[in-house]
Amino acid sequence: MKDIKVLKLKLKGLEKKLNLEEKKGRIKKLEKESLEPDFWEDHQRAAKIMKELADLQAEISQLERLKSELDQKLTPIEIEKIEKEINQLETKIFLSGKYDQVDAILTIHAGQGGTEACDWAEMLLRMYLKYSQSKGWQVEILDQRRGEEAGLKGASLKIIGRQAYGYLKKEKGIHRLVRQSPFNADKLRQTSFASVEVLPVIEDKTEVEIKDDDLEFETFRSGGHGGQNVNKVATAVRIKHQPSGIVVESQAQRYQEQNRKIAMEILRARLWEIEEERRKEKMAQIKGEVKEASWGNQIRSYVLHPYKMVKDLRTKYEETDPDSVLDGGLDGFIEAELRMLD
Prior knowledge:
The chain is of the alpha+beta class and 342 residues long. Helix content is 43%, strand content 22%.
């Protein structure tokens, strides 16, 4: 069949573009490293290496399986399924940015609108948790601030997995929900907004210089849920970076040192973002472009009433099953985002 010939050619091209031989070499190197006697002495580093090894092995295994399947007699439905997998692999070619391979910090803020907006923020949190689960990523909830009646005023997640930042980086922006309100008897149509921020976890401390003298540390009692230490021991950490005025907090962990580490990760990422925005603005000026700050842009609308539609306003990609999208089915949107030129 012509479709199979096209897919075989596409897959062959992908093998080269995805640097398959280079990845096989990386696997050998990691396997050798994992056999060193002191490998597990640094448990965090070892776990990260084993995760990278598993991801690389899974990618190569997927390519080999697809090649094998394309040599079989296939039904149209099976061909369609393979084509979808190949398209998803093709998306990985677009993940070549400096930090596209690293973990991500994703933060959701409810917009104006009280309970409606807080409920929408919680729906987005669930969506990203489900999407992360579908990718096999681990998620640490760094912070959750409950709404007064329902939902969340805000939440921060650390999403741990290969290419997490690369896949999620273009989710940054304003997300709009239109639906019948579940919070009033008349079920009036209500529009709610929430903002999403996505930052890379930058482990290289030399990449973003932070001077100790520029930091102001403060500890306070956690206001979170549960645990005997809550509101009794000052485990939460607030850090102010004096030159920029940025203030970050972490209070989800039990121990002060853990919260301090998380707060520093967030601060490092925010400082990187400032420099990145300055670089983009400079490039825009050189090219003669005028762009609004990306954090202020409305990027996607989720309409549940009077019709059903989720539409990305940048790529024009849309789907008519919002329930599936809100259940973590973001692949179509994210693939379209990644293929979109900056």
